[in-house]
Amino acid sequence: MTARTSRSRLTAAAVVLATASLALTACSSSSSSSSGSPSAGSSVKAVTADPSLAALVPADVKSSGKLIVAADASYAPNEFKDASGNIVGMDVDLAKAIAQKLGLTADVQDAKFDSIIPGITAKKYNMSMSSFTDTKEREATVDMVTYFSAGTSTAVKAGNPDKIDATDLCGKKVAVQTGTTQADAIKDTINPACVKAGKPTVPNDGDKFDLQTDVTTALISGRDQVMLADSPVIDYAVKQTNGQLQKIGSTTDTAPYGVVLPKGTDLTKAVQGAVTALMADGTYKAILEQWGVQAGAIDKSVVDGATS
């Protein structure tokens, strides 16, 4: 399964080095808003509202004029903070385009990944685009509108000094983000298989960090030997760390991402319609190409499309 970390006790110098290498900010602000058209400098055209889809938007959301969108802004290139502290990324641009298609603007707010679904059910947020894999377990409490496909990938330090085999992580120190399906996979799949094979397990069911940037830092610093994350995130981290990391093995457990929405409301129909319209008019493809993640494009958006 794919998805989307305890914070490591690294020296300040190590954190600064890793963060600079990633070209990401270490802003501690808990929220940041962005609205209107896609990111500055984007070649993506402005999106025209569709009155028939706008008519599906619940009255309370329509009257506010905006969609409050939760995103864990530590998961580049899908959602992260730029040098000015603005939340940017593939998911952010898609959220803005969806909002525009519905005659709204997007208010994208930073949130811890494992707090987002509870925030949706508590009506703190209208929706979330934060690299959530669509799973049956999540569909039990929220609606998921599919819009992308990703799998789990594995990264190690360049040159693979520990000779890590991506298919056998037993006994290895593995970094993951808290609340992701990678974290669940270590606990529910990888470690039970290690026990069955008579091998040592992944310590602590993986070293879990609240932010994906901290997962990457833990690997670069040598605190951990391996990191697991969604395929576009691993690809981006390898590129941005300028040769400090490398991807090993193949991408596994490919599954769809889903926009997270309150269960059973007309907003789900509106958002699914907006995603479909953006696919049809070329906006969807343009946004994915802008962020270099077009390999994850899907042809059709559905509601609750999980297979497991």
TrEMBL record:
Superkingdom of origin: Bacteria
Signal peptide interval: 1-25
Pfam families linked to this entry: SBP_bac_3
SMART domains, alphabetized: PBPb
Domain spans labelled Solute-binding protein family 3/N-terminal: 66-295
Keywords on record: Signal
Protein name, UniProt field: ABC transporter substrate-binding protein
Organism field: Kitasatospora kazusensis
Native organism taxonomy: Bacteria, Bacillati, Actinomycetota, Actinomycetes, Kitasatosporales
